[in-house]
Amino acid sequence: MSKIKIGVFGAWRGNSYISLFLNEPRIELIAICDKNISQLEELSDFEKDKLQAISKYTDFEDFLNKGKAAGMNAVFLANYFHEHAPYAIKCMEAGMDVISECTAASTLKQCVELVEAVEKTGKKYMLAENYPFSLPNFKLNQIVESGKLGTLLYAEGEYNHTGNNEELRRLTPGKYHWRAWMPRTYYVTHALGPLMFATKSMPKYVSARAAFSELLYQIKDWRHAYDGCAIMFCEMDNGMIDRFTGCTAMASDYSRYRVVGDLASVECGGNIGDNKVRLFYLNNTKPDNEEKETLFTADLNDFGEKAQKAKSAGHGGGDFWIVQIMIDYFADGIEPFFNVYRSVAMSATAIIGWRSCLNHGENMRIPDFTVQSERDAVRNDDLTPFPDDNGNGITLPCALPVPIK
Length: 405
Hints:
Blueprint: E1 4-9, H1 11-22, E2 27-33, H2 37-42, H3 48-51, E3 55-57, H4 60-69, E4 74-77, H5 84-93, E5 97-100, H6 108-121, E6 125-127, H7 135-145, E7 152-160, H8 165-170, H9 189-199, E8 203-212, H10 214-217, E9 227-236, E10 241-248, E11 255-261, E12 264-269, E13 276-281, E14 293-297, H11 318-330, H12 340-358, E15 364-365, H13 372-378
């Protein structure tokens, strides 16, 4: 039973995982790195006695080199949303396994480079997409896997995350911070991820549309991505179709998910209620031993003794399960669902989805990154809406043109 000796890059988002790492016997936390020293200082009150012995760095190269010298063999990437792939590649080239937050890559070129780094180095890579493992989604997954729905036809996912101007300011610390420039399709993982996991499918084609928000346009001077939502529509590799959002700013419930088959449908979130999951049959598809409609309460007791430890973990327990999946993978070689190929497929859906928005919903193919010729076709495609630290490098708009009134 090998031990995972891990470092955390990004203290702000890494905070909730640090607690989990410190309390797992098969994980040893080696080092923490964040360029903003105040983020490290905030950690001093968090598991104070255990954190005192952990090395802390503000420079990534120091973190990587000195961490490696101290035995670090894995890195959790919780740095800026659009910068994961380059750091993942550096870590793998240094001999470390990688678990990456939010999105695998922010350009198609990075998708190719990430896949080829995994193949070249032989290191393990997984995405820490936690929403499939929130408590209600756990129950939804269980019902889908039972076969009750019949042939899967359709799925939908909606992820909403907005706030008042004060909160948006806090989440956008700096003129060139990624949140100020992110198109609505790009943060797709929490909407698409649960659908992919529940239905064990990957996207093949995407058509997308975005919608202008007058409310967000009022803060365009410091929050330039002023579209209120983006809706993506995908053909999946198992024949079903999915409809899902990016990270939306609509006046709506926080998130909701639905999977529909030719026999029944299952859904959670929205008006269903906290930790509630609804299974519904048509009159002509209802088995004799089932009710037409059943409202389940997702209960940790249904998912084994280990599930009790997820009670206090972030994202409805999802962060806890991500750590368990990482242990299974890094220590025992059990491959996760979100391996590098599914991870870059999800990133590419977001990237190409935005290009579809800019072209009035054009249906566009998502590369199969297991195929060399399809990688080669996008190998040099580094179009991006994100500026560098000096405000340079933008090659795509981050919002639709303002409608003419």
